[in-house]
Amino acid sequence: MTTDKPLDVFIVAGEESGDALAAGLMAELKALHPGEVRFRGVGGARMQAQGLASLFPMEDITAMGFAQVIGGLPRILRRMRETAEAIVATPPDVLVMVDAPDFTHRVAHKVRARLPKLPIVKYVAPTVWVWRPGRAKAMAPDFDRALALLPFEPEAMHALGGPPTTYVGHPLLGELERLRPNAEEAARRAAKPPVLLVLPGSRRTELARLGATFGEVLGLLRSHVPTFELVLPTLPRRRQQVEEMVAAWPVKPRIVVDENEKLAAFRSARAALAASGTVTLELALAGIPTVAAYRVPWLEGRIAPYIIKVKTAILPNLILGEPAVPEFLQWYIDPPAMAAQLARLIEGGDERESQLAAFKRLDAMLGEGGEPPSRRAARTVLETLGLSFRPVA
Question: Can you give the pTM of this predicted structure?
């Protein structure tokens, strides 16, 4: 493939997180490719800012849960057909499918059947190591390359018979400067009263399941640490629910919905109480010792051990292969023990230092300080096409 004609990239994302990942990839493709790059496909505002004219609103394929699919199935099937037809009608140089596996994998399968030589890349590798491992083998015929966010995923994908997979890094690695404190903020972390982050989840159901428990833990914490400054970052659309939730708490947090305020709190926080999720990795990268918890509905909790293939729900623990972050899950949620654990992390000592040391090892495993993840992803896409790229400082 020569560079005298524009590189034609068809790229599809179906979720907000995918829109952000795809936009970063698009920016880096433009920076690395020696010639012009043109984009077609489906995406949101961030991708459109990078030059994409979306075939239809990304929101049409965002809701892919069972309840949403029942009502929207005709629309989703129509969008699948439209996307596949647009690709086949004018074949691009490469097809990149970002996240949203329920939609993107089906479209990739349709396209591969009609354009068997078209290079197809998947960004992000699905969590086949957690559940439904058969998805890895099912992907292999339809994808030439998968891009992984976590360092153990290429080996896991290979072991399960999936497509060739390259670790490119988690997008949070691009946020380190905004997550980590300067000298003044580091001093605030060590000062009194300590700043404590409480992160009970971003979904309505998470807040409902964990809100009362987190309030109880914070009340019990006062017997160990009488005074602390409590900050609860949340999404603007969750503010009302959070305000209603904390009304019954014995300790009232300062609720923040602005992203910059949230990051400022991260840079000053001494410890955190958090729901399991990506936020636990965010806290680890910020160097904030954490106690994590999670609760699912009773039936899911009973079924989970039979279908979930991992022993931890905490991302830093999963990557490290060790229980660095104490986790209290489902039947084992214990507010007095959680409060005592949190107090020890705030006050300092071996448990706090052990967690901070684990976070340093996590940095090394993730490749902190190396090439930005979006650039690694763009480089891998170009290498998959057999293209050279120009150096970028």
Answer: 0.86
